[in-house]
Structures are given as structure tokens and as C-alpha cells.
């Protein structure tokens, strides 16, 4: 076997191994993304108790909480944005009706609706009062999910 042929064979083997490694890394990334997506609900979670709220904030890394009221016009305007963020971001989205859960609203000093709180690792990192556009909220979430 000549040196040029063995060099060529080595190059072919290296190329094959690189290709196999790239494919394995791609498969691993896909599996990790699917696992993350499976853990993050794609619909907003309507909170029924303070315990449920605390468990959700603790269980998930990034949580967007929408404090709202059924009678609130701006809250109704924000609803499609909140649903979209739940479906299309890595944040878990919680909905808290301030009329049903006044103690939670008081605990988080909600003075107006809609109020959005963003939690990262169970700590409040952002507070948004009023309606904001989806791209602004999406950018805010992405600061903590990447």
C-alpha cells in the first residue's frame, strides 16, 4: 500500500467518523429539545390554589404568570399573546384570576391588571403591568430561557 493511498484511506475514515459524530450530536440535540418541550406545557395553566401556584413556579425553570380578571378589557386583549407565548416559548405560563386568588395577588403586590410576573428558578425577575406586544414579551422570556 502506498503512502498516498493510506493517507487517502485515513482521510476517508476520518470523514466517515466526523459524519457519524455530527449525526449523533444532532440526534442528541433533538432528543434534548423534545424532552424540554415535553416538560413545558403548551397551554396556559389556570391556577386553582396557592399550593398549585408554588409547585408550578418551583417545578419549572422559567415561568410567566398572568394575573388577570375576567372583567378586565386589557386582560382579554392580552389573552391571545399569552396563549401564543405558552405554545411557542420554553416558558411555562400560569394564569391567576385575581378575584378568585386575592391572597396571591396581595402576596405579589398586584395593584393593576393585567400584571405579568416572570420567574426564573423560582425568583421573580421581571414585572410588567399593562398590555405589551408579543415580541417584547417573547424577548424578555428568551433572556432567561437561553
Automatic annotation (TrEMBL):
<feature type="domain" description="Thioredoxin">
    <location>
        <begin position="25"/>
        <end position="146"/>
    </location>
</feature>
<dbReference type="GO" id="GO:0015035">
    <property type="term" value="F:protein-disulfide reductase activity"/>
</dbReference>
<keyword id="KW-1015">Disulfide bond</keyword>
<dbReference type="GO" id="GO:0005737">
    <property type="term" value="C:cytoplasm"/>
</dbReference>
<keyword id="KW-0676">Redox-active center</keyword>
<dbReference type="Pfam" id="PF00085">
    <property type="entry name" value="Thioredoxin"/>
</dbReference>
<protein>
    <submittedName>
        <fullName>Thioredoxin</fullName>
    </submittedName>
</protein>
<dbReference type="InterPro" id="IPR017937">
    <property type="entry name" value="Thioredoxin_CS"/>
</dbReference>
<feature type="compositionally biased region" description="Basic and acidic residues">
    <location>
        <begin position="11"/>
        <end position="27"/>
    </location>
</feature>
<dbReference type="InterPro" id="IPR013766">
    <property type="entry name" value="Thioredoxin_domain"/>
</dbReference>
<dbReference type="InterPro" id="IPR036249">
    <property type="entry name" value="Thioredoxin-like_sf"/>
</dbReference>
<keyword id="KW-0813">Transport</keyword>
<feature type="region of interest" description="Disordered">
    <location>
        <begin position="1"/>
        <end position="46"/>
    </location>
</feature>
<dbReference type="InterPro" id="IPR005746">
    <property type="entry name" value="Thioredoxin"/>
</dbReference>
<keyword id="KW-0249">Electron transport</keyword>
Amino acid at each position: 500500500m502506498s503512502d498516498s493511498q493510506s493517507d487517502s484511506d485515513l482521510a476517508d475514515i476520518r470523514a466517515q467518523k466526523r459524519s457519524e459524530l455530527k449525526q449523533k450530536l444532532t440526534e442528541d440535540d433533538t432528543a434534548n429539545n423534545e424532552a424540554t418541550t415535553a416538560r413545558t406545557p403548551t397551554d396556559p395553566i389556570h391556577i386553582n390554589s396557592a399550593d398549585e401556584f408554588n409547585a408550578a413556579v418551583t417545578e419549572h425553570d422559567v415561568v410567566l404568570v398572568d394575573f388577570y380578571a375576567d372583567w378586565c378589557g386589557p386582560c382579554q386583549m392580552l389573552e391571545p399573546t399569552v396563549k401564543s407565548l405558552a405554545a411557542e416559548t420554553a416558558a411555562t405560563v400560569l394564569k391567576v384570576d385575581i378575584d378568585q386568588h386575592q391572597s396571591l395577588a396581595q402576596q405579589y403586590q398586584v395593584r393593576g391588571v393585567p400584571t405579568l410576573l416572570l420567574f426564573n428558578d423560582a425568583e421573580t425577575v421581571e414585572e410588567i403591568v399593562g398590555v405589551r406586544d408579543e415580541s417584547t414579551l417573547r424577548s424578555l422570556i428568551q433572556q432567561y430561557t437561553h
